[in-house]
Write a structure and sequence with these properties.
Length: 126
């Protein structure tokens, strides 16, 4: 099945995915990045592991979507495995799994499992 077939608009869905041309994506990203500082978050790469977790557990956990929060680490809050603390003021993305509750999408789990740019930027990408 072609990607376009998988992402065809379903008129009954609220925000159906829309494939946009690469030229539009580049213009949108360039426009956004023109207004931010050189050390501000430009993108985040999500590891296949988190994508697989979401796909493999969507039905069991009643996951209806994913919300992405822009975030910044605060000194003295949180740590990673091994006791290493997060770098204060470093920007990141918090991935929240959501579950439908009535007409709302309630966060049910959070992940900080991303590789931010900077410093890990995509060479040759947008």
């Amino acid at each position: 099945m072609e990607l376009n077939e998988l992402l065809e608009r379903d008129e009954n869905k609220f925000l159906a995915p829309v494939i946009i041309p690469a030229t539009d994506a580049i213009q949108f990203v360039t426009y956004y990045q023109a207004g931010i500082g050189p050390n501000d978050l430009k993108s985040v790469w999500l590891d296949r592991e988190i994508i697989d977790f979401i796909c493999n557990n969507a039905q069991d956990l009643d996951i209806d979507g994913v919300r992405l929060y822009l975030a910044k680490y605060k000194a003295g809050v949180g740590s990673v495995a091994g006791g290493t603390t997060f770098e204060p003021n470093k920007q990141t993305i918090i991935v929240a799994l959501t579950k439908a509750v009535g007409t709302k999408h309630e966060d049910i789990a959070y992940f900080d499992y991303a590789n931010p740019c900077p410093p890990n930027c995509n060479l040759g990408g947008i």
